[in-house]
Automatic annotation (TrEMBL):
This is tRNA (guanine-N(1)-)-methyltransferase. S-adenosyl-L-methionine binds at residues 113, 133-138. Keywords: Cytoplasm, Methyltransferase, S-adenosyl-L-methionine, Transferase, tRNA processing. The gene is trmD. Its EC number is 2.1.1.228.
Length: 226
């Protein structure tokens, strides 16, 4: 079973994403365990402070070393982590390849940044991987962590079934997914392509591959570069 621990000052933001649909089933099947920890539990003063002014001045608070270090040390005693991931807009852009790789790991710890981020020394001493989910700034790492956990969780063996299979996803071979149709065959005069109605599986496969290529060339030519 894959275990994912998440450290955050806003655990409420991470309650709902994992209690529905596929992520819920993954946990019920015992394939994935997600635990969300309130970082303030490891605060070192009585006010539950986990952030402080930055050295050198400037706007914005920085997440302090001690609460993070104490939290990581304590959690790590329970189980070693294969990766300690810090969610940050200056991390490596997240993609399907990274999700595939992380889905093969055992235990992950994810740190959600807030304010101006975490003290650089925690990054040097503890963090093994820094992830961004795109070139825009979120008010905290929580929604980004939810994206990463969802992308990893659905790849774990046994989580998806034939109806939800990852094999036909966009990006699975660096191509976008082909268009899909369901009933009716004629909707307001817009027809489902004949090939799909004829029921020749080889022709359907070829058509879908051609559509994938065309779609990728049109919308994401960058994916075809490598
Ligand atoms: Cl991981 N965190 C924040 N705060 N903003 C982001 C992000 C992460 N990825 C893209 N924008």
């Amino acid at each position: 079973m894959m275990k994912i621990d998440i450290l955050t000052v806003l655990p409420e933001l991470l309650e709902s994403p994992f209690t529905h649909s596929i992520m819920k089933r993954a946990q019920e099947k015992g394939l994935l365990q997600i635990r969300v920890h309130q970082l303030r539990k490891w605060a070192v003063n009585k006010y539950g402070m986990v952030d402080d002014y930055q050295y050198g001045g400037g706007a914005g608070m920085v997440m302090m070393c001690e609460p993070l270090a104490n939290a990581i040390d304590e959690l790590q005693q329970e189980q070693p982590y294969d990766e300690i991931i810090y969610m940050t807009p200056d991390g490596k852009p997240f993609d399907q390849r990274t999700a595939n790789g992380l889905s093969l790991k055992g235990n992950l710890l994810i740190i959600c940044g807030h304010y101006k981020g975490i003290d650089e020394r925690i990054r040097q001493l503890y963090v093994t991987r820094e992830i961004s989910i795109g070139d825009y700034v979120l008010s905290g790492g929580e929604l980004a962590a939810a994206v990463v956990v969802d992308a990893i969780g659905r790849l774990l063996p046994g989580v998806l079934n034939d109806e939800t299979s990852a094999l036909t996803d966009s990006f699975q071979d660096n191509l976008l997914a082909p268009p899909v149709y369901t009933r009716p065959a004629d909707f307001r005069g817009e027809k489902v392509p004949d090939i799909l109605l004829q029921g020749d599986p080889k022709k359907v496969d070829d058509w879908r591959h051609e559509q994938s290529l065309q779609r990728t060339r049109d919308r994401r030519p960058d994916l075809l570069d490598d």
